[in-house]
Amino acid sequence: MQQPFWLQGDESAHDVVLSSRYRLARNLPGQPFPGRSDWRSRVQVAALVERAVKHEFPHWKVLKGEELSPLIREVFFEKHLISAHLKDNPEGTLVILSPEARFAILVNEEDHLRFQFLLPGFQLAGAWRELLKVESRLERLLGFAFHEQYGYLTSCLTNVGTGLRVSVMLHLPALGVAGSLPATLNNWPDKGIEFRGMFGEGSSLGEGFVQLSNKVTLGSDIPTLNSRVLCSADELIALERRARTELVTHFTTKVTDSVHRALALLSEARLMSSAEATMHLSAVRLGACLGILPQFPVRYLLRLLVGMRPGHLQLQAGRFLEPHERDENRATFIRSQIRNLVEDKRDG
Amino acid sequence: MQQPFWLQGDESAHDVVLSSRYRLARNLPGQPFPGRSDWRSRVQVAALVERAVKHEFPHWKVLKGEELSPLIREVFFEKHLISAHLKDNPEGTLVILSPEARFAILVNEEDHLRFQFLLPGFQLAGAWRELLKVESRLERLLGFAFHEQYGYLTSCLTNVGTGLRVSVMLHLPALGVAGSLPATLNNWPDKGIEFRGMFGEGSSLGEGFVQLSNKVTLGSDIPTLNSRVLCSADELIALERRARTELVTHFTTKVTDSVHRALALLSEARLMSSAEATMHLSAVRLGACLGILPQFPVRYLLRLLVGMRPGHLQLQAGRFLEPHERDENRATFIRSQIRNLVEDKRDG
Fold this sequence. Notes:
2 copies of one chain form a homodimer.
Chain A: E1 17-26, H1 39-56, E2 61-64, H2 70-78, H3 84-88, E3 94-97, E4 103-107, E5 113-120, H4 127-142, E6 146-147, E7 151-152, E8 164-171, H5 173-178, H6 181-186, E9 193-197, E10 209-214, H7 222-250, H8 252-268, H9 274-290, H10 298-307, H11 310-317, H12 323-347
Antiparallel strand pairs in A: 1-5, 1-8, 2-3, 3-4, 4-5, 6-7, 8-10, 9-10
Helix pairs in contact in A: 1-4, 2-11, 8-9, 9-10, 11-12
């Protein structure tokens, strides 16, 4: 499977930002929302959308959710191509992918259509325009449910309006180490901004993968929503960079020690849980950004972070793995990847 | 400083036994024990012993305890050449060393003379004969305090009789990991045997450095005492080897993981406490014995274990080091030693 576009790396603020993502919720008029619809209605919606997509984007892949194996759905979920909801409820859904999975359209998830636009690095400047182009080409054929006063209608109230959710995945290890991350996020001045974890909570260097997005989509237009997220992200990036400078200035040896320990364990362990690997990859990523590990291509670590998830490991193994087997396969996978990285650099 | 003989390594049961040691307490008649003597008496005793040693062993080095700097005393203590008592109370003492420090005679420590015979590996078979030869050559000149009923008289009652303490330093990591070590030692069938730690207590793989010795020296002769210690050591060695086989058979991946992690951290950390280093060196030593790290010369690790102690680090640095500086120097020392080891092997 080719790497999705968003996992291919980008230079824009890549020291702090892993990826940017847009999501647009749309529904067809005169059809019940997927959560309330019967089988026949879901099939009708899927057929309408498929026809429109094939007309506008003949090269895009249209996959039936229930024809994807649970393992492939898990892998798609880990690559952020589909939602947890679609992964667990594939009946009557479609997963539509543009080349390199820049765009993914989920059909009959919570809404009839969820457009996703996935980008590497920090790319919130005008990327929404590209998404809107895709959306409007389909809107011309399908016509989306729209209310003059509320805007686009969606199954969940928080999405009514623009139907847009803009999010960036941030890596904030220095704020995490400094211990100020929870307070910083809880007291964030813009109350229209929401924070979530990437892979659950941690407490050491592993802490610090944070997803920032807008909370509601109503009562605003797309450029305004976009710049609200952009502003908050900019501010957090600046805070994290300042915290990194502090860290390197006042705790040089401690940070260097932690980074080298993390890399040593990733390079040599024979068993490793997902939580431990996340923690060490976070430390190595920080080390690579700070120049402690200049041999490490920062962008590559994100692919490791995704590739070591249970679905990916099981796809690679070609079978179901018990948790202890996963820990063994994960350690082997990470070890070999890191060895390759180091050897690539040595040869190059 | 040349490595003492006991740190040069030996093949005898070196998978479990680090070193063997004999100690013989003797006193001159008609002189108060050092703990009760005045300065004049200590000077007299020291002069008598020095004259006798120079007569019998003209090549041995005679050092005045109070002329050794605190740092050198610390280093001697870490090399097990002098006792904690002499390290802290050097006034009026002598430290007499044979070539390679096979023998060390401490004068005016708790007793007028303490003969020490330090050997690498498991060498309890007949080594006491060699010690007695040294002792009797000095006894002919000095005459030691002896009571027909009690035997040799000593300042502490537990040493009266033969004045002999036989000890072996054991590495019992598999019993430590299995958790059975405390119970095994507490319920040891021979109540004449005593167990102590080498560098304090630990709780993971680091646990397992244990010193085994006879408890009292009265009411027995030297060959009997010696074989009592020998028997108990033999039994513990067998128990540890069985535990290692169990470990490797049932927890192969877990053990391999722990060993590689330990080596990775020793090879890459930039800060390391003495306790952490001991724990990792123990795991690496186990790995070397089990063939998980075939490149590691087992005997060498003992020298690392001694060389990373605070006195050695400060001697190398040429100055007093704060604890956090020691942790940094220790990590650097261990890292470079391990790199040398690996490179030596690669070149050879």
